[in-house]
Amino acid sequence: MPFALSQDRSAHSKRLKETYTAEIGILEATGNNDGRRVGEYLRYCGLDEGYAWCAAFVSWCHGQAGYAAPRNAWSPALFPASRTIWHAGDPWPVNGGQSVPRVGDVFGIYYTNLRRIAHVGFVDGWDGKYCITVEGNTGPPTGGAIAKDHPANPIRAGPDREGVYRKRRPIRTIKAVARWAE
Which residues pair with 163 in a beta bridge? Predict the structure, then answer.
């Protein structure tokens, strides 16, 4: 089954995809949640360098695309009930129902040791088994850096410096999906 492609509903949602895709390849400067662009993501949310930045990356991309929200570097804050369209364990909708994740939605991964969603990124494709993602504050897929248009595998095996990468994650590893872009 092919991956779901965006049915962009506005110029903003098209710009969102262009924005987050253009960031693929951005790397931390020294591996300490730092660097010029990482600093921009964090400052957009009112933080200095040194903090985890996956949610700040998502927020910054939305801001660049013309959305006022989200604007938060705390991963769990990106999944309020009013924005969450899918949870792990939900039945799959029929006939393209509202809860089918689409390009530009935000996925969240639950960390059992933290007992919360602790990593987020963008859905760039969804086929019911895998989610193609673009995410920041993560290591590259196994095998090192990949081209922007190459679906990658889900294993995080990165260098000392994390960055923005496209990955392929099994949907079973995703806890929730939120829709901020309409």
Answer: 27, 138
